[in-house]
Every structure is written in structure tokens, then in C-alpha cells.
Amino acid sequence: MAKKQRTPQEKSIDPAAQKMLIRADELGLETAFSRADNMAPCNIGAAGLCCKLCGMGPCRVTKDGQTGVCGATMDTIQARNLGRSIAAGASAHSDHGRDMAFTLKAVANDETEGFVIRDVAKLRNVAATYDIPIEGRSPKEIANELADLFIAQFGSQVGPIVPLKRASQKRQKIWADRKVQPRGIDREVVDMLHRTHMGDDQDYEHIMEQAVRTALADGWGGSMIGTDVSDILFGTPAPVHGQANLGVLKTDMVNVVVHGHEPTLSQMIAAATQDPEIIAYAKAAGAKGVNLAGICCTANEILVRQGVPVAGNFLHQELSILTGAVEAMVVDVQCIMQALVNLAENFHTKIITTSSKVKIKGATHMEFDERHAMTIAKDILKTAIDNFKERGATHIPDDKQDLIPGFSHEYINYMLGGSYRASFRPLNDGIISGRIRGVAAIVGCNNPRSQQDYLLTHVAEELLKQDVLVVETGCGAIAAAKKGLLLGEAGLDKVGPGLREICEAVGIPPVLHMGSCVDNSRILTVLTQMVEEGGLGDDIDQVPAVGLAPEWMSEKALAIATYCVASGAYVIFGGSSPVGGMPDRIDESDIVLNYLSKGWEEAYGGKLEFIPDPDEMVRATLAHIDKKRADLGLPEYDPTRFGKSGDTRMLELEKLPLSERRESIYGVAAD
After folding, report:
1. Are 406 and 305 in contact (CB under 8 A)?
2. Phi and psi, residue 172, nearest 5°
3. Of 577, 639, 631, which Cα lies nearest the Cα of 608?
């Protein structure tokens, strides 16, 4: 008996996605949405209660007091499973950081083709942070030493890793006292896998402490390194105009979609599309040129630096192929569906894998090598151009939305005070005064088991109404972009009165796009700099701020959540918990779940909770923000105090006679 399929409208709130889902149904083709409807999740595995770590199992532990063959209890099994997921997520982002560090080393030694150091100021600032001499040295000399330092963070056997010094002194002491300061990043991942092997660590709290240390090695190590090096090589993001959604594809150009997470390949392909040789090659094939668009976090990398349009977030990868207009989808690592190859067989699209870590059966493999970067990028584009003649009918939705991304922590600092008075003081003052009630970081993936983009955008819109400033990364930021929340004018009718004043005065959208998912390290930096600015406590756990991943699906998300919690943040996930109890039961299968909230809050001041209902997510976020405001002795949130200043107020005043204008401003009648 066929399972009930959701309608396209139930699968996604995005009109472009709905059109492509209708097309998929008409063609009888599967997508992640239909497969999710057909595939019922295993409730035992979903609760983390299935152990398959040795040949005596798999063991399904579902009853109070039941154990695996070896005697492993529910809490041990759940902690082991979660710890391994966190290790995998940390490995993905940190390996990205490692690759970036080796690329920096190669650039510094003139071993690459096409790459240069684009942000020397960032290079010097980062090097100085780690006490690397910069005066009288060339950028390549500095970069070479910095690259060596970064590379050493992966294999060092004693700790702590050096980027931890960027956290507050109080936070560093908490980590030291609890003995969770990461040593080498690779060592922590191996430690996590070793202690979760059959017959090793069997104390769930002890297992979760190593999970924290592994995650910290990513958030304050591998991910932070990846972000810093990307900025140094490709430029630190600043606001730039872009567009998002499937409508960015073009009928008269060769469409190449880059998908994945590594910026080295996508940046070089972006440069190659503007090369006269490639433009001429495309015109000879009957196209006007090459149109590059991105999916997922590769999209964010080239969007925030160059304004390259975004075709969509995670769940748009199949939908872009359904347009019939994509000559090649070029992928590297992470979040790439194996289903792409089978789907592409129904169209002319070529799936091209480029990473030594990733091959897909049936795809074309053109391995990327930084030493021959431009040559390989051109070869990839020529392969796509040669495929243009095979294109059939196209069905490109006309849906696309303008956006302004590129809010790195450096730019936020600059925009609040200019070149000579750059400071987080105005942001802190906005929170202290109550114009900004608090800050929410909305991050994470799409999940086809929920309505695409709904949870992400609903939570954002409801928080904006309550004067909560929203910062976003990854697929969450793309969802907000498609909804029109990344425009300055979005603040005029979608946010509360206090936040509107800030947006109008500074000239920013109410949702700040901070980059790809690896760039969550930027959020840690912003929160730390807010603490250092003063007035909001002495550590992240006192700041009125919450992190949310409403549509999470990836092991990377679990690693991100863990390092944010260990840094003092309250983190809310939508969907189900990977260590939840069995349905409708509260028993010993909830021990680990409770520890992630109460246990971690007692240890680190942060906690992780799973809340499926979006309105409850909003309520919990506001309650936490208000509690932190009260603990700091800040004024109670009162939206009626604001909304009569900024550009809107000036426009109102200009309509009044001079005498009434003075009285309105000063409360004193004119003489």
C-alpha cells in the first residue's frame, strides 16, 4: 500500500520549489521529499537506542533495565552514538579547515595557479593575534608561518590548541577546570572514536565530556581556521548585492551550478567564467556566456564575497536539475545527495565530482588540484559548455529575490562606528537600552521531513517582530534570502519598533547573512567581542542570545550545537532528538537527553534542547533572552518606548510646520 504523499505546498513554502515538485510528479521522478514520505524513520534508531558497534549486535534496547549483549545500558549506547556523530560533524568542518590551511601554505610558497592573498590586513591581524611577527615581513612570509601554525593544530599531541585564546578569559578557565581544552584536532576525534569502541568508556557523562572537547576542537579550531584562511585568500566579506532562488538560472547561457562546501574550487570557477577564453568558447557553442550559480554553502562562499547568485539551499540541489537548464552540477564535499546521478540521467545535466574524498558512481570525476586550479576550472567549464547543445526544453521558475549578504564580524564592527571608531558599542547599547531585545543566530540545514524553509523563516519573522536581531549562516540564511528578509527595506514592515530604529539608522537588513555553515565561528567571535565591549556580562552565557537550528539534519549541526553550548550558549533544535526517549515515555532512556540541557547548563552555562513546535521555539527563545536581560539588570523589554526615531521619524517631522516640529522634538513650543 502506497504511503500518503504530501502536496508540493506541504513539502515547501518556496514557490519555486513547489513548481519543480509539481514537475517531478508530472515526470514520475523521485526527490528527497517523496523519498522522505515513503521512508518511515526507525523510532529506535531515531532515539539513539540501537547499538551496532560490534559483531554481537546490533542490539536494540527499548525497555527499562534492558541492556545490549555486552551489558551496555541505554545511556551508554545513546552517549556513544551521539559522541560518534559529533566526531563525524567536527571532522567534516575541521577537515575543510585543514585543506584551507594547506592551500594557504601552498600560496605562500608559489605552488598554486591563480590564487593570491587578497586580504593582507586580515592576514596581519590574524598573525598578530597568534604572536607571529608581522613588521618588516612580506605577506607571503607571514602567511607561510601562519599556515604552519594552523597545520600544527591538527596533529599536535598536547594542548590546548592556540585559537582558544580568542575566547574570554572566564570561558578559557571553565574549559581548563573541566579538562575539555582540545589538544590536536585529529587527536580529539580519534579519542572520541576510541572511547566509544566496544568495551571502552561506559560512563555517559564522561563520554559527553569528550564530545564537548571534540566539538570545541572544531568550533574554536578547525572551523575558525577555515574561516580565517578563506578571508585571507578570497577577501573578508562585506555587503554585496546578490540574488537567490531558481530564477537566477538563464535560458540563453550555459548554467553551471556549484554545490558543496570548499571555496577553493568555487572561487576559481567564478574567476574562470569571466576569462575571455571561456566566454568565447561559450559563444562558439551558441550561448551568451557562462552563468554560475550556487547551492548550499559553496553558494554562500561565493555569494558573500562576489555576489554570485544562489540557486537555492540544500533541498534545491535536485530541483535545479529538474529545470532542465543545468549543463553541469559541480560538487566537492558534504551534503551532496547520491540521488543526483540517477535524476540527472533523465536530463542532459552532467554531475561532476572534484574532491579526492568524494566520488559518486556514475558521475564524471575531474579532480581539483590547487597547483593547476585555473586550468582545471577551465576544463570543467568547457565540459559544461560542450553539453549545452544537448539541452532540451527548460522549465525555469521566474522566482528570485534580491538580497544583501556579507556581514562578517569585521564588517559589523566597522559598520557600527566607521574606520576610526569601529566598535561593538552601538550594538551593546542597543541591547542595553532595549531597542534590541536580544540576538538570535538561526543556522542549519533543510530537512525534507519538514516543510522546507517554513521553520527557518517562521521563527525568524516572529523573533524580528519582537525586536530580536537575527544573524544567519548556511542554508538558513538562504531560506531567509528567498523570503526577502535580507534587504534593508525588509526592516520597515517586518520588525519591531526598536530594531527598526537600529536598521534604519545603520542601514542594514534585520537579518544579517554571515556566511557558510563553517562560518558559525564568526558568531562565536561576535559574541566574544560583545562581551569584551562591556555592559553585557563577562562571558557568552550572560549575553541575551540564543542559537537555533529549526530544520537540522546533519552531524555537523550536532558538532556546532555542542561547541556553542560549551561556549555558554542556549541552543534550540527543531525536529527530533537523536537521544530522545521512546515515544510517550519518560524513563531511563531520557537520561542523556536531560543531561544535554540540565547537565550541560550546570557545567557550561549553555544547554541544548529539542523543540519541534516553532511557536514554542520562539517562546523559549524570548523567555531565555528576557531572563538574561533581568539577570544583567537591564530594563524590561517595552516596545512602546521606541519607534519614533530614525529615518521614519525624520520623514514624519518634515511634514510638520517649524513650530510644531520643534515642539514635537523638544517638547517645547516655539517662541
Report:
1. yes
2. -60, -40
3. 577
Coil, strand or helix: which one is 178?
A: coil
Q: How many residues does the chain have?
A: 671
Within 8 A by CB and 6+ apart from 525, the residues are: 166, 224, 409
For residue 236, is it left (φ>0), alpha (ψ between -120 and 50) or beta? Answer: beta
Same domain, 249 and 230: no
Q: How many CA atoms lie within 13 A of 273 on its CB side?
A: 22
DSSP letter string, 21-70: HHHHHHHT---HHHHHHHSPPPHHHHTT-EE-SSTT--EE--STT---TT
Quick: pLDDT tens for 252-276. Answer: 999 999 999 999 999 999 999 999 9
Task: Check if the beta carbon of residue 335 is closer than 8 Å to that of residue 553.
Answer: no
Judgement on whether residues 527 and 549 belong to the same structural domain of the protein? yes
510 and 637 in a single domain? The answer is yes
**CB 488 within 8 Å of CB 530:** no
* Eight-state DSSP code of residue 449: T
CB atoms within 10 A of CB 402: 13
What is the domain count for the chain? 4
Domain match, 117 and 191 both: yes
**Spacing of C-alpha 260 from chain mean position:** 12
Residue 61's nearest CA partner among 70, 71, 52, 74 is 74
Boundary-marking domain end, from 234, 260, 293: 234
| In contact, 221 and 185? CB cutoff 8 Å | yes
> What CATH number does the domain containing 562 carry?
3.40.50.2030
517 part of a folded domain: yes
Find out whether the peptide bond into 160 is cis, omega within 30 degrees of 0: yes
Range of the domain at 289: 242-390
My answer on whether 415 and 545 are in the same domain is yes
Average pLDDT, the chain: 93
| Amino acid at the residue 50 | C
Co-location of 415 and 546 in the same domain: yes
Tell me what the mean pLDDT of segment 187-213 comes to: 97
Residue found by looking up cell 523567555 in the block: 623
CA distance 139 to 130: 15
Residues facing 244 on adjacent strands: 310, 401
Task: Say how many CA atoms lie within 13 Å of 206 toward its Cβ.
Answer: 8
Alpha helix locations (H) across 416-508?
425-433, 454-465, 474-482, 491-494, 497-506
Would you say residue 671 lies in a domain?
Answer: no
Task: Tell me whether residue 646 is in a domain.
Answer: no
In a domain, 596, yes or no: no
* Judgement on whether residues 380 and 413 belong to the same structural domain of the protein: no
CATH number for position 215: 1.20.1270.30
Instruction: Out of 32, 60, 88, pick the residue that ends a domain.
Output: 60
3-state SS assignment for residue 611: coil
Query: What is the distance between the alpha carbons of residues 87 and 471, in angstroms, rounded to a whole number?
Result: 26
State how far Cα 369 lies from the chain centre: 26
DSSP for residue 633: T
Do 301 and 342 lie in one domain? The reply is yes
Q: What are the pLDDT digits (tens) for 14-54? A: 999 999 999 999 999 999 999 999 998 888 888 899 999 99
Distance, in Å, from the CA atom of 182 to the CA atom of 212, rounded to the nearest integer, reads 9
Tens digit of each residue's pLDDT (9 = 90 or more) over 581-591:
655 554 556 89
